[in-house]
User: What shape does this take?
Amino acid sequence: MSITLEAQDLFFIAFLITILITRIFLYFVPAHSRIYTDKTHHLYVGSILLVISLIFLEGVTGVITSAIAIGFIVDEIWLIPYLFGFLHGGRRKIYWSISSLSVVLLGAIAVFFWRYYLASI
Assistant: This one.
């Protein structure tokens, strides 16, 4: 599949919008909500979407779906050390910590530079 500049830009915009909407949504959810007490994370949803995108989708639909999936994954990549016990504290506190936001920013920078490759998978 030939990837045009528009597809790369579309990929990166969909990626950023996914992170932005997810962060805004979770900012307004009360801390006692089921969203913060369940064990389902958007990291898992992103992983499933990425597999679906890689196997079944192509073209613009595949680009957008994989961008959304990678947005979900990058937004919660900090969760991996938390799950293994390297970070302590409530998930909401860690989700909005400087380290979490820094990881998301670094992930966004990496996706920007690798968007051509990521949009073509």
Summary: The mean pLDDT is 82. Residues 5-120 form one domain. Residues 14 and 54 are 17 Å apart (CA to CA). The first helix runs from residue 5 to 28.
